[in-house]
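Quarterly update, task 2.4: flavin mononucleotide-bound model.
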Amino acid sequence: MNIGIIVYSNTGNTLSVAKKLQEKLEAKGHTVNLEQITITGEASPGKKDFQFTAAPSPDPYDAVIFGSPVQAFSLSVVMKEYLEQLPSLEGKKAAFLLTKHLPFYWTGANRAIRQMQGASEAKKAEILGFGVVIWSGSRRERTTQSALEALSGLF
Ligand SMILES: Cc1cc2nc3c(=O)[nH]c(=O)nc-3n(C[C@H](O)[C@H](O)[C@H](O)COP(=O)(O)O)c2cc1C
């Protein structure tokens, strides 16, 4: 399958997991392109003073994995805006990768997943699933492995 991994990563955590996911999917025989969403300006929780310098198109792909950090108990505002400006995803499969610092899904993961699902469903994508990495302490390695397994297992 031709898969795009489209990632917004502020400090590099989500990007590093996305690179591992790319390797894992390629090892399964898929064609995988990793692309980054980039911005200029300021995008912090509650502040949307930014513009996209790169907003990769999902058009070339059969399936897209969108990757983002959780920020302020929500999906990062950059990924939220990116998903909203997308054209139709009809006929495409979608999956989600989230990284976050705090343990427990209720500290932002649940809400961010709902936001990603809602935005992708609104564009008529077929939602396959998601993976969440908890970046803090001993959870990082374990949750990275389980997110990689979960996401690569979808394809
Ligand atoms: C402004 C800001 C808000 C954040 N809010 C949360 C949060 O609500 N819950 C959480 O678990 N982590 C939160 N984090 C931590 C990030 O989600 C975490 O460090 C993530 O792995 C960063 O990914 P990135 O390096 O790809 O940007 C926040 C980080 C920043 C900078």
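Highlight for this quarter: The pocket of flavin mononucleotide is lined by residues 9-15, 44-45, 69-73, 99-102, 107-108, 135 (CB under 6 Å).
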